[in-house]
Write a structure and sequence with these properties.
It contains 40 helices and 22 strands. It is α+β, with helices and mostly antiparallel strands. The two termini are about 55 Å apart.
C-alpha cells in the first residue's frame, strides 16, 4: 500500500503539496535554483540525485521553480539510473500540470512521451514504478494516450509488472471519466483473475473487482468458495474485507458468508485468523460464532510471541467480555495461561480480565492457579518478581472478598510474605489479612496464631503498624492476649533503649578527689542507669561519663526495636495503643489481678522508655507532638480506666472498621452497576415472533443469530445512546446569519480523532466558485486531509467533512475561514469562522485506583498546577460536588470521611484519559469566619497538557453554581 505524507507550507495553505515519499529538508540552508541547474546539467549521477532531492523539497515547501522544468526534461528524462527515474516520478507527481482554468499544460506532452517509453521499457523496474506513478495521476488528458501501453502490461511475463498494471487500471477506472476510458476493464480483470498464478497480482485483481465491480467479485467468491482455503494470505484478507462490506449493507445475506469466515479460521496465517475472529464478532452475535472467535483469540494469545500482539488480542477479549460474558466465563483458564509471559502489562491485563469472569464454578481453579504463580515468584529468577507478586496478591484478595470460602486456602500461604523485601507486596498481604479476619470469623484463631508466629519477620514499619492493629483488635482469648503481649515485648528487646555508660576508674591514687562546691552541688541532674532507674550526678563529675548511646540489644533483638531506634515514633504510638488494648482486654479475661498488674506495669515501662528515647539527644529527630500525646494518653488510660473509655477502645474501633468495609463493598457494587449496560425498549417497536419464522434452508448458526438479534431488539440494544437533543447540543455556529455564506459544524469526538461535519449554505443568488473550507489548529491537533474546492449553486448547501487527529489530552482550538470566488468579483472573498474549542472533558473519564497507587503517582508525577479556590459557594461538600461534575473525575475519598461539620475538607479525585494518562487532583478547602471558602486545588499529571488544561477548566468553572 502507498502511504501519503502531507507537508505543509508555512505561509500559504493553498501552496500545500502531497508526496508519497517524505524527504528531509533543512530550511536553514535552502538550495538556490542556479545550483540545482548546474548539477542537473552535469554528468555526475550523485550530484543529479542530490539536485533532484533539493528541487522536490523546495517544491513541497511552497517554491515554484518554473525554470527547472526544462532542465529536467533535457538532462534528467534520458537518464537510465533507477534512483534518478524514481525521483523524476516524484517530481512529476508534485508539479502543477494544469493552468488556472484546469487545462493540461502544453509542455506535458513531453512527459507523456517519456511515460509511454517507460511503459515499454525492457527493464522491469522502470515499467513497474511508472505504473505505480500512474496510480497517482488525476489528469485524464495525460492518462488517455497511455492506456494501450498499460493494458499491454497486464499480460507481461513478470508478476511485478502485472500487479502494478492492475492497480493502474483500477485507479484509472475510478477517475470521473474512467468508465469511458476503460469500458471493459472489470471483464478484463475478471478473466485475468481466473488465470493468474501470482498471489499478489491475484489479490490486486480481486481488489479491483471489489472496488469497481462488486457484483463480479461476489460472483467469483461464491463460485470458488471451495478453494478459498488454498488462496494466499493477501487474497484472503481482501475477501474478509469484501464480506464485511457486503454484510454491512445487506445483513440478510450474512448467513452464507459466515460459513466462509468459519472455514478461514483454520487458515495457516495468524493475520487471517485474527481478522476472521474480528469479522465474526462484528457480523454475528450467535453463541457458536462468538465461541469460535473467543477460542481463536485464545489460540493467538498462546501461539504469538510478540508482546504487542498479545496486548491487542487481550483488548479484543476485553470487548468480548463486556458483551458476551457468559461465553467468556468458560475461557477463564485459557486466558490465565497468558500469565506465562514475563511482560507485566500482559500479566496485569490478563488478571483484570479473569477477575471479572470468576464464578462459583471456576473460583477454585482460578485461585489454585494464582497460588502456583505466587509460589513461582519465590524463585527470584526475574527482576520484577516483586511487582508480579503484588499483582497476584491483589488478585487473590479480590477473589477472597467475592468468595469468602476460598480465603482459608490462601491466607496462610500469603502470610509467608509479610516479611517480603517488596514493601508494597507486604502491605497488600497485611491489608488482605486484616479484611479476611473480620469477614471470616472462623479463620480468626488460625490467623492470629500464624501472625504471632511470623511477626518477628516483618521489617517494614507500615506493615508492622497494620499487624499490631490486628493483634490489638482480634486477640480475644487469654492465651492470645498473653502471647500478643509477649511477642511485642520480645520484638522490642530489653529496656532501656539507650544508656549512659561509666568510663573506667582512674588507678592513680596520688590524685585526691576535689571537694564539691556549692555551685556544683546545685547543678546536679538526673542520669539513666542500665536498669532504667534514675540517679543524680554533679556537673563536676560529668567528665567521668561518656555521651549517651543507643542500646541495639542482643542478636535476637526484634524488628520493633530496630525501627524505633531509627526514630519512627508513629510506630511507637501504635505499639502503645496495641499494648493498651491488650492490657484492657486482659483485665476482662484474666482473673488474677497480679498478672494484670504485671502486664500493665510492663506496658507502662515500655511507653515511658519510648518517651525518654524520643526526648533524648541520641536521635537526630525528637519525637513528634502527635505521637507524644498519643503515648501519654495511653499511659493515663492504663493508670485510670473507665467503662466508657474501655468501650471506645475495645469496641468502637472495630465498629468503625466494619463500617469502612461495608462502605467499600457498597462502592464496588455501585461501580459494577454503573458499568452494566442499561437497555430500554421502545413501546412501539415491532415484535418479531421467532417460532413462526420459516426455518427452511437455515443453518444452526443462522438460527442462533436470529434469536440473538431478536433478544437485542427486545432489550433495546440496537437503540443508539445519543438522541436528537444531545446532537443539537454539539452543533456550533461558525458564521453569522448576515454573512453571504452560512456555516455550522457538528462536532463528533472519537478517541483519537475529531470529525467535523460542516454544513455550508449559499445564501446569495450567485454561484460560488472554488469555495474552500480552510482550517488550522492550535495545540496537539493535526488536520488529516487537504481542503478541496467546491462549486456552490445559488441558495444550495454542501456537506463538508474534516478529520482532525488528536495526539494528546490537551485543550485545542480549531480556527479558519471560508474562501470563495464569484463571477462578478475577481478577488477572492474571505469569511472568518468562529473558533471551535475542543474540551479536555471529552478525553478524560472517571477511574478508580487504590490509595497506595494514588500516593505513589502523586510522588512520581512532575507536573503540578495549583489553583486557588475562588467561589461563591459556601458549603464545602457542595463545592466538591461542583468540582467533580465540572472535571468529570471520580472522588476516591470515602463519603464517611467527607461528613461532619468541622469546617475543613480534603478529597482526592482521579481520572484517566483515552491515551492512558493519569490525572490526579487534591481538593483542600477551609471555611472562613465570614462563611467563604478558601484553599487550593492541586493537579498533578505526568504530562504538562493535562495539568494546564484541567487547571484552566477548574478556574473557569469553580465560580459557577451547582
Amino acid at each position: 500500500m502507498t502511504l501519503t505524507f502531507s507537508l505543509r507550507s508555512e505561509h500559504k495553505q493553498e501552496m500545500e503539496k502531497s508526496c508519497t515519499l517524505l524527504i528531509h529538508f533543512d530550511k536553514g540552508t535552502p538550495a538556490m535554483a542556479n545550483e540545482i541547474k548546474e548539477a542537473l546539467e552535469g554528468n555526475d549521477v550523485p550530484a543529479k540525485i542530490d539536485a533532484m532531492k533539493k528541487a522536490i523539497s523546495l517544491l513541497l515547501n511552497g517554491e515554484t521553480l518554473p525554470q527547472i522544468f526544462i532542465m529536467i526534461v533535457r538532462y534528467v528524462l534520458p537518464s537510465e539510473d533507477h534512483t534518478i527515474q524514481k525521483l523524476l516520478l516524484l517530481y512529476l507527481e508534485i508539479i502543477e500540470k494544469t493552468d488556472a482554468k484546469g487545462k493540461v499544460l502544453p509542455e506535458m506532452i513531453l512527459i507523456c512521451q517519456n511515460l509511454r517509453n517507460n511503459l515499454q521499457h525492457p527493464n522491469e523496474y522502470i515499467r513497474g514504478v511508472t505504473l505505480r506513478f500512474l496510480c497517482r495521476l488525476n489528469e485524464t488528458e495525460i492518462i488517455e494516450p497511455l492506456i494501450p501501453s498499460v493494458l499491454q502490461n497486464l499480460e507481461h511475463r513478470h508478476p511485478y509488472i502485472r500487479r502494478n498494471a492492475i492497480l493502474a487500471v483500477m485507479s484509472i477506472y475510478k477517475l470521473p471519466q474512467g468508465e469511458q476510458l476503460l469500458v471493459d476493464a472489470p471483464e478484463m480483470i475478471e478473466k485475468l483473475l481466473s488465470t493468474e498464478q501470482d498471489q499478489s497480482a491475484k489479490r490486486n485483481a480481486f481488489l479491483m473487482l471489489f472496488n469497481c465491480a462488486q457484483d463480479r467479485a461476489i460472483n467469483y467468491l461464491l463460485t470458488h468458495v471451495d478453494r478459498i482455503s488454498d488462496w494466499g494470505e493477501l487474497l484472503q484478507m481482501v475477501v474478509l474485507e469484501l464480506i464485511r462490506k457486503v454484510c454491512r449493507t445487506n445483513r440478510g445475506e450474512k448467513g452464507k458468508y459466515i460459513k466462509i469466515i468459519i472455514s478461514l479460521l483454520n487458515a495457516p496465517s495468524s493475520a487471517v485468523i485474527y481478522e476472521c475472529a474480528g469479522t465474526l464478532v462484528s457480523l454475528s452475535s450467535a453463541p457458536t460464532a462468538i465461541r469460535a472467535a473467543a477460542n481463536t483469540y485464545g489460540q493467538l494469545l498462546l501461539s504469538q510471541s510478540d508482546n504487542n500482539v498479545k496486548l491487542i488480542v487481550l483488548d479484543r477479549l476485553i470487548e468480548l467480555k463486556s458483551s458476551h460474558r457468559d461465553i467468556m466465563v468458560d475461557m477463564v483458564m485459557d486466558v490465565l495461561r497468558a500469565l506465562s509471559s514475563p511482560n507485566l502489562d500482559i500479566r496485569r491485563k490478563t488478571l483484570d480480565i479473569v477477575l471479572d469472569l470468576i464464578t462459583p464454578r471456576n473460583i477454585n481453579e482460578v485461585v489454585l492457579m494464582l497460588k502456583k504463580e505466587v509460589v513461582k515468584t519465590q524463585s527470584g529468577e526475574l527482576e520484577k518478581n516483586g511487582e508480579y507478586r503484588q499483582m497476584l496478591i491483589q488478585a487473590i484478595h479480590s477473589c477472597a472478598i467475592k468468595f469468602p470460602e476460598v480465603a482459608s486456602t490462601v491466607v496462610h500461604l500469603l502470610m509467608d510474605f509479610l516479611g517480603d523485601s517488596n514493601v508494597a507486596s507486604a502491605i497488600d498481604v497485611v491489608i488482605f489479612v486484616r479484611e479476611i479476619i473480620e469477614t471470616n470469623p472462623k479463620l480468626r484463631v488460625s490467623i492470629i496464631t500464624r501472625l504471632l508466629d511470623t511477626f518477628y519477620q516483618i521489617r517494614a514499619a507500615r506493615v508492622c503498624t497494620c499487624a499490631l492493629w490486628i493483634i490489638g483488635e482480634y486477640c480475644l482469648s487469654l492465651s492470645e492476649v498473653e502471647n500478643g503481649i509477649a511477642t511485642i515485648m520480645q520484638c522490642l528487646g530489653e529496656l532501656p533503649f539507650f544508656s549512659v555508660s561509666e568510663e573506667p576508674e582512674v588507678t592513680d591514687t596520688s590524685k585526691k578527689p576535689q571537694p564539691v562546691s556549692s555551685s556544683q552541688v546545685s547543678s546536679r541532674r538526673p542520669a539513666i542507669l542500665a536498669d532504667g532507674t534514675y540517679a543524680t550526678q554533679s556537673a563536676a563529675s560529668e567528665t567521668a561519663f561518656s555521651p549517651p548511646t543507643l542500646v541495639q540489644g542482643s542478636l535476637t533483638a526484634g524488628n520493633l526495636r530496630s525501627l524505633l531506634l531509627t526514630g519512627d515514633f508513629f510506630l511507637g504510638a501504635v505499639i502503645a495503643c496495641t499494648l493498651t488494648k491488650l492490657v484492657l482486654r486482659l483485665e476482662e479475661v484474666q482473673t488474677s489481678k497480679v498478672e494484670v498488674n504485671k502486664a500493665s506495669t510492663q506496658a507502662l515501662l515500655i511507653m515511658v522508655s519510648m518517651l525518654q528515647l524520643g526526648q533524648s539527644p541520641v536521635l537526630q529527630h525528637p519525637i513528634d507532638s502527635d505521637s507524644y500525646d498519643r503515648i501519654v494518653l495511653c499511659i493515663r488510660l492504663l493508670c485510670n480506666t473507665g467503662d466508657d473509655i474501655r468501650k471506645i477502645w475495645l469496641q468502637s474501633c472495630r465498629q468503625s472498621f466494619v463500617k469502612m468495609l461495608s462502605e467499600k463493598q457498597l462502592r464496588e457494587t455501585e461501580e459494577q452497576k454503573a458499568k452494566a449496560q442499561v437497555s430500554h425498549a421502545q413501546p412501539d417497536d415491532l415484535i418479531d415472533f421467532y417460532h413462526l419464522k420459516s426455518r427452511k434452508g437455515m443453518s444452526q448458526l443462522e438460527l442462533e443469530d436470529e434469536v440473538q438479534d431478536d433478544l437485542k431488539r427486545a432489550t433495546g440494544e440496537f437503540i443508539k445512546d445519543g438522541d436528537d437533543a444531545n446532537k443539537l447540543n454539539r452543533i456550533l455556529q461558525l458564521t453569522g446569519f448576515s454573512d453571504p455564506v452560512y456555516a455550522e459544524a457538528y462536532v463528533t469526538v472519537h478517541h483519537y480523532d475529531i470529525v467535523l461535519d460542516v454544513t455550508v449554505i449559499n445564501r446569495t443568488k450567485e454561484t460560488l466558485q472554488n469555495l474552500c473550507l480552510e482550517l488550522a489548529t492550535m495545540g496537539d491537533l493535526k488536520l488529516v486531509e487537504r481542503p478541496q474546492n467546491y462549486t456552490l449553486a445559488p441558495e444550495s448547501s454542501k456537506q463538508i467533512k474534516a478529520n482532525i487527529k488528536v495526539s494528546s489530552t490537551e485543550t485545542g482550538v480549531i480556527f479558519g475561514n471560508i474562501v470563495y470566488e464569484t463571477s462578478n468579483v475577481l478577488e477572492r472573498t474571505v469569511i472568518v469562522l468562529n473558533d471551535i474549542h475542543i474540551d479536555i472533558m471529552d478525553y478524560i473519564s472517571p477511574a478508580v485506583c487504590t490509595d497506595a497507587a494514588f500516593r505513589t503517582m502523586w510522588a512520581e508525577f512532575e507536573w503540578e498546577n495549583k489553583v486557588a479556590v475562588n467561589t461563591m459557594i459556601q458549603d464545602e461538600k457542595d463545592f466538591l460536588d461542583h468540582i467533580i461534575n465540572s472535571t468529570n473525575m471520580k472522588c476516591l475519598t470515602a463519603p464517611s470521611a467527607l461528613g461532619g461539620e468541622c469546617g475543613f475538607l480534603a478529597a482526592n479525585l482521579y481520572a484517566k484519559s483515552v491515551f492512558g494518562e493519569d490525572a490526579l487532583v487534591n481538593v483542600s478547602i477551609e471555611k472562613q469566619a465570614d462563611g467563604k471558602l478558601s484553599g487550593y486545588i492541586r493537579i498533578r499529571s505526568k504530562t504538562q497538557g493535562i495539568a494546564l488544561s484541567l487547571g484552566d477548566k477548574i478556574t473557569l468553572k469553580q465560580k459557577g453554581g451547582i
